[in-house]
Amino acid sequence: MATAKEAREWARTNLRGIGNSLYTPFCGNDGDDIDWDAYRTLVRYCVGELHHPMLWCTSGIAEFWSLTMDERKRLLEVAIEEGRAADPNVVVQACTAAMSAKDCLELTLHAQEAGADIVYIQTPMMEAHGGEGVLKFFKYVAERTDIALGMFNSPSSGYVLTPAESARIYEEVPAVCATKEGAFRPMASRLLHDLAPDLTIWECDTTVYRAGWLRAGIVGPAQLGTSGYLYETPQHPVLSEYWELIWSDKLSEAMDYAEKSGMDQFGVDIRSWFTCYPGRADYFTHWGGAFKYAASVLGLPIGSYPHSRPPQAELPQEAKDTIDAAYRRYGLVGA
């Protein structure tokens, strides 16, 4: 675990590789329970079979908004237990976003005590008073904890920090060392780097990596919370091989590989089901049911209740058909 004082130096050397954002497998009546065996299997698969070096726990794909405080704590504990058993060096990242600063603090303290390496706080989902409100939120948590902190700037919050607002948080909260920029606005990330050059940035618009932004030091060599386990298998480690080329600065080879392997086409074929609900097409979401259905296509356990808990809708058949066809064309499942 990185303490607040050590956070920035630690981030520069330890945040590297694919970090899997884990889904929550539900079971029981209306999905009111969690299938812990399925969850343990998922963790072991990501760390022990795919050999991905990072885990990202209880965030959007996990549907944190539908989980109780106790469930969120236990999910992190199990991820640490199983992940470290498979790889003692796995970096465990915990998302402690919550509707109140007090709940966020409770989850952050738990992550610190449980052995997580870093905590990410999503831009608050409530009526935050802009960057000033988010800064106060971070300060409230940071003043009462001693663990590395990261920002998670997602449009699913309803408010996206400007580069200047993020840079101010970095300047005034020494524990903040990294950010996942999830708004798909790369020029804002470029400006944020200018304002806070030592901040470790993950830009979700991955085209910037092909443009040499890692070489230029604008972004870091880590995928801070993605669903990499849905894009490859141990037998076909397409995503890992692609990113190794990117991290080795073999950009032309990486682009050729992405095309020839079918990875780029898969991104087109899967369409926007992971992040877009048709009934609210202008809103970015983490559709838990879509991620879990894709996992089931690859043979991963998702629990006996395959849907998301409220407030998310059930995945329509059209989405399932699209996901099935995308995986067949990609070659990760049988034709």
UniProtKB/TrEMBL annotation:
<dbReference type="GO" id="GO:0008840">
    <property type="term" value="F:4-hydroxy-tetrahydrodipicolinate synthase activity"/>
</dbReference>
<protein>
    <recommendedName>
        <fullName>Dihydrodipicolinate synthase family protein</fullName>
    </recommendedName>
</protein>
<keyword id="KW-0456">Lyase</keyword>
<comment type="similarity">
    <text>Belongs to the DapA family.</text>
</comment>
<dbReference type="Pfam" id="PF00701">
    <property type="entry name" value="DHDPS"/>
</dbReference>
<dbReference type="InterPro" id="IPR002220">
    <property type="entry name" value="DapA-like"/>
</dbReference>
<dbReference type="InterPro" id="IPR013785">
    <property type="entry name" value="Aldolase_TIM"/>
</dbReference>
